[in-house]
Amino acid sequence: MTLTLRYMTLQDVPQVVNIDRMAFELPWSERSYAYEVTESTYSYMVVLEAETPAPAARGWRRWLPLNGRSTGRRIVGYGGLWHIMSEAHISTIAVHPDYRGRGWGEILLAAMVRRAVALRAGFVALEVRVSNTKAQNLYHKYDFETVGTKPRYYRNNDEDAYDMRLPLTAANRQRFSQRFLALQTYHTFADLYTTHEPPRTQQPGRMA
């Protein structure tokens, strides 16, 4: 299975919305994602795409060109990063339920942190439910610190959120660079996101 980090496009939005609805009780709308990828000047939306070869053809089909096989591509995770002045804010992150537990959420998180470094942000910020200890453990692994609590942040049940931040100090950037390299070596994913600019001007059409 081949993994690729790349910018989210308008064509990806239906798959992203499907994952979003499975992951969150308060999902974003299709229109919101369309705005993020085609109009917003501060958004850096990312997807993790998996490419899997089709099963080997059998019988007479194996004599067809390319053995009658094709590869399938699907979005298995996504994330959103906003860059405003010195702050890089992780607005959303999720992995398709069928592909959780493989460390792919970590790839998305690390990609957005690396993009924040490339954007010369001073720190990365995010909110996380106080009950979501699994996510908090991942953020702590990447040196995020809990700096405060936002009362009744989540509208569906008034749950508090932790305000977590990663200062992009020289020491943290160096430590993160080594961590990202190790992560890329382990998962062998292609990276078309962290050092590239978003192709907003190349989007084929916009949602009215």
Structural features, described:
By secondary structure, this protein is α+β, with helices and mostly antiparallel strands. It has one domain (2-55, 70-200): Aminopeptidase. Helix content is 30%, strand content 31%. It has helices at residues 13-23, 30-38, 104-118, 133-141, 170-187; strands at residues 2-7, 46-53, 71-84, 87-95, 123-129, 145-154, 159-167, 190-191. An 8-stranded mixed beta sheet has the order 6-7-5-4-3-2-1-8, with helices on both faces. The model is unreliable at 66-70 and 203-208 (pLDDT under 50).
Keyword list:
208 residues, alpha+beta, Aminopeptidase, eight-stranded mixed β-sheet, 5 helices
What is the topological layout?
Elements: E1 2-7, H1 13-23, H2 30-38, E2 46-53, E3 71-84, E4 87-95, H3 104-118, E5 123-129, H4 133-141, E6 145-154, E7 159-167, H5 170-187, E8 190-191
Parallel strand pairs: 1-8, 4-5
Antiparallel strand pairs: 1-2, 2-3, 3-4, 5-7, 6-7
Order of helices and strands: EHHEEEHEHEEHE
Largest sheet: 8 strands, mixed
Lateral strand order in the biggest sheet: 6-7-5-4-3-2-1-8
Mean pLDDT: 90
Give a quick summary of the entry.
With 208 residues, this protein is α+β, with helices and mostly antiparallel strands. It contains five helices and eight strands, in the order βααβββαβαββαβ. A hairpin with a 2-residue loop joins β3 and β4.
